Amino acid sequence: MFFATLAFAFVEPFFFIGYLISIAIFGLYQAIFMADAGAAWDNAKKIVEVELKQKGTALHDATVICDTVGDPFKDTSSVALNPVIKFTTLFGLLAVELAVRLTATSGSGLTHILALAFFAVSIFFVYRSFYGMRIRTGEGAKTGSGARAN
Prior knowledge:
Number of strands: 0
Largest sheet: none
Number of helices: 5
Order of helices and strands: HHHHH
Structural class: mainly alpha
């Protein structure tokens, strides 16, 4: 997120303003969605346990996902979006100021090269976070007990 923000800040200041507005709007709605969805999932498990008195049944086993996903959604992920939006805005505004000064002194060529470099770094981290953390399956993978997978 940080390097993508730097890349957009070095492309064009007006482009970056649109980026900040979209981060604020979509981040707000994403945080509201995650808080509401997490609370709904958490409440679904509580309904099965308290109102339906189905603890220990197959229905209760099916609602374990509600507790596993619902708690992080409402307690951590939705709350963590606020500092992400704030720091993105702060670092981006500082980067835009630097980009405007660099453009005034050396032209827009250097700022576009820096934007491309920052964007490449952000793509690297996105690739690494999505594909570098996959659970390996097949011949070389090991199960939790240390035995070879079949």
